[in-house]
Write a structure and sequence with these properties.
The complex is a heterodimer of chains A (367) and B (230). With 367 residues, chain A is α+β, with helices and mostly antiparallel strands. Chain A has 9 helices and 21 strands. In chain A, the strands form 3 sheets. In chain A, strands 12, 13, 14, 15, 16, 17, 18, 19, 20 and 21 form a 10-stranded antiparallel beta sheet that branches. Chain A has a 6-stranded mixed beta sheet with strand order 7-8-9-3-10-11, sandwiched between helices. In chain A, α2 packs parallel to α4, α3 runs antiparallel to α4 and α4 packs parallel to α5. Chain B is mainly alpha-helical and 230 residues long. In chain B, α1 runs parallel beside α5. Chain B is globular, with a radius of gyration of 20 Å. Chains A and B meet through β7 of A and α6 and α7 of B.
Chain lengths: 367, 230
């Protein structure tokens, strides 16, 4: 269990963050300058709060009222940094074992071989960190943090320095760790897709304050959250059910009361619930049922809130059944279609814009 | 080469003094460099200035200050003499003078080396459970090795050639405090001593060159081993 309630002023910036989460992975989401990193440094003990407390698994790490401050090296909080910070003078194996030398004897030992297996770093054990690729280095860093037998694992934008391919290689590993090792995790990120995929509990930070707390659907389903994101990043989450695969075209239908989306090469099983992340810029709008169009995916709904931003408009479409989807279109298209609140529309998107990485299995609902 | 017994003694003495001076000041050098690089404390500027004094003072002045402080009748020296520790006119005194003169060079190189270590590596060690002392020995110290080697070599070379402070503090006694530098000085003061002076000068230059060569090799190897994080 994590219970955080802290304030800290640094220069002109004031951080005031409070949240509790009982289980699993907590995502701290926000743009740069929102106070994510500062929150992490309070958690790991590199900074002291002006006021407040942090409690992890019943252990008080900081409490300004009770005058408790546990130094970083006695907190047993593993951190995976953006730039892995592996020790250059140690081999991969020595890096992995570093934290173990300091873990108390009675600590719940995390199994070395299990971690090495899960992360697929067996062949790297005798190498020096300088000879690893960015993705490999990050896997070793995750293993190193995990093997220090932490009470809490912090991820500080662990994928931000990696390219897309490496990112897709590490994400499933973090998912696996989340499910296989019973360690609470806090995942800091400004990438919505990572957060949606990993977390069931999201804390949205803005200007040093908690703006919203909830499931990814709740947090990212708000237009107010979406407009804080860059235009390319804005996306909606739709929960859908996997249908029977069309073997001939390697397409899998994802069903929703408002329509069906066909996904290419999707590995899900029939009946699985999945989150589909749909970028707002990939969504087109039609006011009548289109024919003769290559776009095969269509969801029905009515227009909800409208947000104008210069030449672009962000429209919220309330889907038939439940859920909503955001679409970014031009002001001119908006005017020509004479769109308005309450008007029934069809939201269209290409299958190729929705590859496998955009869909993730729904993590058992804990909230 | 036909060196006289006195000349051999001077060479041996020079090496002994330099080795002892460098070895004895190394732990202090590492500690003070690290403190100056990483800690904020009152009097930091003062301590930094004090360490660097021998670098800017005339060596004779440093030697004289040593005489006043550590001499047999000196401020501290008189108390040390009571418990049987005497530096003046002994080779140990020459080692003290050499250490004091070499110390600023040692600290400068090591401090730079500690400062160049990414503090976030040390923070990472902290999050893995290493207390500050363990972090120092397992992370900071090994990563500072190239700079520490440079500091040691510089201090050693300085000790080997120290002249002004040494001769002021412990005089120029053959067999006790007469180093190569002092011996050369002596030969240049007597008629017909030029040949001996040149011989010792060549040896002195050879030793200095050898020191530099070894330092270069050792440092290259250390740097290659670390090849600091990309």
């Amino acid at each position: 269990m994590i219970d955080v309630d802290v304030t800290l002023t640094v220069g002109t910036f004031t951080l005031s963050v409070a949240f509790r989460n009982d289980h699993g992975l907590t995502a701290l989401f926000g743009q740069s300058g929102s106070g994510k990193s500062l929150t992490l440094s309070l958690l790991s003990g590199l900074r002291r709060p002006d006021r407040g407390h942090i409690v992890v698994d019943g252990q008080v790490l900081v409490d300004t009222q009770k005058k408790v401050f546990i130094p970083p090296y006695r907190r047993r909080i593993g951190v995976v940094f953006q730039d892995s910070y592996l020790f250059p003078h140690f081999s991969v194996r020595q890096n992995l074992l570093f934290g173990r030398w300091f873990a108390p004897r009675d600590a719940d030992r995390v199994d070395f071989d299990a971690v090495v297996d899960t992360l697929g770093i067996g062949p790297l054990l005798n190498r020096q960190p300088q000879r690893l690729s960015g993705g490999e280095r990050q896997r070793v860093a995750i293993g190193r943090a995990l093997l220090s037998c932490p009470h809490l694992l912090l991820f500080d934008e662990p994928l931000a320095a990696l390219d897309h391919a490496r990112k897709l290689e590490i994400l499933p590993l973090i998912e696996k760790l989340r499910d296989e090792f019973d360690i609470p995790m806090i995942y800091v990120s400004h990438a919505m897709d990572e957060v949606v995929r990993l977390a069931r509990f999201v804390v949205l930070l803005e200007n040093g304050n908690v703006k919203t707390i909830g499931t990814p659907e709740q947090v990212f389903g708000q237009a107010a959250t979406q407009i804080t994101l860059s235009r390319l990043e804005r996306s909606s989450i739709v929960t859908m059910e996997v249908g029977a695969r069309d073997e001939r075209y390697d397409l899998t239908p994802l069903r929703h009361p408002s329509g069906t989306i066909w996904l290419m090469s999707f590995p899900g099983k029939i009946g699985d619930k999945v989150h589909v992340l749909i970028n707002a810029i990939d969504v087109a709008i039609s006011i009548e049922k289109p024919a003769g169009l290559s776009m095969q995916n269509m969801l029905q709904g009515t227009i909800g809130d409208i947000h104008r931003e210069g030449a672009a408009v962000m429209i919220e479409i309330r889907l038939k059944g439940e859920g909503k989807i955001f679409a970014m279109i031009s002001q001119r298209a908006f005017d020509q279609l004479q769109l308005d609140m309450g008007k029934p529309v069809f939201a269209l998107m290409k299958s190729t814009a929705l590859d496998e990485e955009k869909a993730s299995l729904v993590y058992p609902n804990i909230l | 080469m036909g060196l006289s017994a006195d000349e051999w003694t001077a060479i041996w003495l020079s090496l002994k003094i330099a080795v002892v001076a460098t070895t004895a000041s190394l732990p202090f050098g590492i500690f003070i460099s690290y403190a100056l690089a990483r800690w904020e404390f009152p009097g930091k500027i003062f301590i930094n200035g004090l360490i660097h004094m021998p670098l800017v003072l005339p060596p004779v002045v440093t030697g004289f200050i040593l005489l006043i402080v550590l001499g047999r009748k000196g401020i501290i020296g008189s108390y040390l003499a009571e418990i049987g520790i005497v530096f003046s006119f002994r080779w140990t005194g020459a080692a003290v003078a050499a250490a004091v003169m070499g110390f600023p060079l040692m600290v400068r190189a090591m401090r730079l080396s500690f400062e160049s270590i990414d503090q976030r590596l040390e923070n990472a060690a902290g999050t893995l459970g290493a207390n500050p002392i363990a972090t120092f020995f397992l992370v900071s110290l090994p990563l500072a090795v190239p700079g520490i080697i440079v500091g040691v070599i510089l201090a050693f070379a300085k000790s080997l050639g120290e002249f002004g402070a040494t001769i002021t503090f412990v005089s120029n006694i053959p067999g006790e405090t007469q180093t190569i530098a002092a011996a050369i000085y002596t030969y240049t003061q007597v008629p017909g001593g030029d040949e001996n002076a040149i011989r010792l000068t060549l040896i002195s230059a050879g030793l200095a060159l050898l020191t530099l060569l070894i330092s270069e090799l050792v440092q290259k190897r250390a740097e290659k081993r670390l090849a600091l994080q990309a």
